[in-house]
Amino acid sequence: MYRQVLKAQWLAARLPVVLLAVLGFALPLLTVTFGGNVADAPVERVGQWLLAAQQVGVLIPGLALLSGLLLGIAAWAPDHAAKHVYALSLPVPRAMFVLLRFAAGATLLAVPVVALGAGALVATLAVSLPDGVHAYPVQLTVRFAMASIVCFAIFFAISIATSRAALATLGVICGVLLADLVIGSLNIKDAASVTTTVFYLLTTWPGPLSILVGRWALFDV
Amino acid sequence: MFGQIDPRSSIPLYVQIADRIRIAVATGDMVPGGALPSVRQLASQLRVNPATVVQAYRELEEVGVVESRQGAGTFVRELAEPKRDAERQRLARRLVRQLLQEASSLGVTREDLEQALRVELKVKLA
Amino acid sequence: MSYAIETYDLAYRAGKHFEIRDLALKVREGSIYGFLGPNGSGKTTTIRLLLGMLKPVRGSIAVLGRKVPAEMARIMAQTGYVPERPHLYPYLTLEQAVRYHAAFYEGFDMAYAGELRRSFGLPLDQKLSHLSKGEMGKLHMLLVLAQRPKLLVLDEPTDGLDPVVRRDVLSALLDFCSQGSATVFISSHLVHELERICDWVGVLDNGKLVVELPMQSFKNGIKRIRLTGAPSLVGDTPFVVLQRDVTGVEQVWVVRGWQPPMAQWFTGVGAAVKEVMDLDLEEGFVELLRASRAPVS
User: Fold this and answer.
1) Domains in chain C, please, with CATH?
2) A11 vs C83: CB contact, 8 Å cut-off?
3) Fewest Cβ atoms nearer than 10 Å: which of C36, C62, C95, C181?
């Protein structure tokens, strides 16, 4: 069963997976092309190069977000088209089928993760690092994997819902933004922005999106 | 042989099927000892409920036209010559009865029928 | 007597009005049950309720002896369902679609599926989105038959198909039925098609089950009677009067549940029966619906 669900999901998501894999492989390499040979460069030069590496690094959680989004949508798009009739008529409890789809999507996520890992390794080997600077290809890849899974889980959950639930989610987000606008316009002293608070909660441990923030550089001190 | 059986006719489907087989046996199209198509085959071919075919075969068995052999299927019974003649005559009477029934429901009179018979039979003989 | 499908006091509402009311279906195991009704009568809704896709307002449903929706997965393991509208994944090829489907059913017969594919003339490597309507119809039938299910629930399986395809699909269905004791629940508004293959018929109109009878009784029991001398007011009749045309000397009554001895009733009220005419299923169906919508005077 899992094999067939995986196959079906792959056939539906072939294009996005390949695209994400290409991006995954390319991003770490971009870090290298920005700098050139820095092995014997002066400290300021190395500093500039590390900064550039960090800036490129910011794109990596972006890629995790994109991977999660594309694969999350692809997981349910075929079923949505026919209003889930096929899936609901199969002799599998709904929860089991959801699990199968999740497992298949997570397996497909491995492709961009592996691609990123490969790209990071190539980038590391291609560069001779100055003293005090280290490469973190493994940590980067693992972090990317975890971030991708988290994003995938979120978009998977949103994507499975009926259009009503998806609209409700969107409505809540709009409501929060609106609340902020109102609070802001009322000019209440020391009032915290709702958006900022929510953002803070989500992105600081143990918030689910905490994995996305921070430094994402391949090369660092 | 089975041509178009008519589900819309007032004659039940199983009777129509049984009749066709009886006609085939009486005219010699189906020989004694010959096998009837399996229930599965006939139901699929005619696109009727298999139970209908079973009923037709059972009816034929009851009147002694066919016999079913365990595991082998249904076969035409060996009928003696006079029995086959009687069968044909019975069928002829049945056909005429049907004709008369239909004629009456269509408003065709006895005279019309006789005229038509004369014309048709003459054509046949000629 | 065991029933493959049994509902009791089933009701469903979508919006303001009740779509299904007091539905008490009884589908005998091994029968080919035709679920007849005009478009919009609630056939598809009923089927969705039976398969646990909709939640009823009240009532109980049992399919293959198990409760819906509690034991849905076990029920669906032995049920082949062909919905009204295509529901398979259009980007799969035929072969991929068959393999996908097969993975979910333990007793899936790949050899039988191959046989059917060849006899239907379906191409293996064609994407489902490129299949014609007829080919799609055949594929649906192929998938459910190869499951070798105990119950087949078919929602207008031949609707929109040309006569040749319809013939092929029905032949395959009946061939399967002859091999075992599967129950078939087939909904359609194509009365003549059901007439040849069904041994039971249930008529749905406006969400209510108007009759549920063996096909033969239904067909035989509806008659058009020409008579004279009947009184204008009648009390209890041994049959159900669907329609009466009392203008003119000769009256025409359409009745249900007729049996030949009932002619005596007419002589009893001083009437003379001129003729008892058979109605085919389509005519009977129309008369039945007409009567159920406008109670006879």
Assistant:
1) 3-214 (3.40.50.300), 223-278 (no CATH)
2) no
3) C181
Asked if residue A35 has pLDDT above 70, the reply is no
Class of domain B13-76: mainly alpha
Closest-CA distance of chain C to residue A74, Å: 13
Q: CA–CA separation, A4 vs C92, rounded Å? A: 11
The predicted model scores a pTM of 0.81
Interface test with C, best of A6, A7, A88, A98 (most C CBs within 10 A): A88
Give the pLDDT confidence score for residue C48 in this predicted structure: 94
Residue C277 confidence class, pLDDT cut points 50, 70, 90: confident
Question: Which helix or strand (DSSP H or E) is residue B101 part of?
Answer: helix B81-106
Each residue of C146-199: pLDDT tens digit? 999 999 999 999 988 999 999 999 999 999 998 888 999 999 888 888 888 999
CA distance, residue A70 to nearest chain C CA (Å): 18
Exposure of C5 in the CB half-sphere (CA atoms within 13 A): 30
Task: Tell whether A8 is within 8 A of chain C (Cβ).
Answer: yes
Question: Is the CB of A90 inside 8 Å of chain C's CB atoms?
Answer: yes
Per residue in C105-114, pLDDT tens?
Answer: 999 999 999 9
Nearest CA in chain C to B40: C178
Name the closest residue on chain A to residue C79, using Cα atoms. A91
Q: Where are chain B's structural domains?
A: 13-76, 81-125
Q: Answer yes or no: are the C-beta atoms of C79 and C153 closer than 8 Å.
A: yes
Identify residue C20 by its one-letter amino acid code: I
Q: How far apart are the first and last CA of chain C?
A: 38
SS3 B126: coil
Is the pLDDT score of C244 beyond 90? no
Beta bridge partners of C80: C152
Q: What's the DSSP call for residue C89?
A: -
| Tokens representing residue C293 in the block | 């919508």
B49 interfaces chain C, CB cutoff of 8 Å: yes
- The domains of chain A are located at 2-162+211-220
- B47·C197 Cβ contact <8 A: yes
Residue A210: exposure state from Cβ atoms within 10 A (0-12, 13-18, ≥19): middle
Contact (CB<8Å) A91/C92: no
Among candidates A1, A3, A92 on the partner chain, residue whose Cβ is nearest the Cβ of C73: A92
In chain C, the residue whose alpha carbon lies closest to the alpha carbon of A88 is C53
Which amino acid is residue B16, in one-letter code? Q
**pLDDT confidence tier of residue A190, bands split at 50, 70 and 90:** low
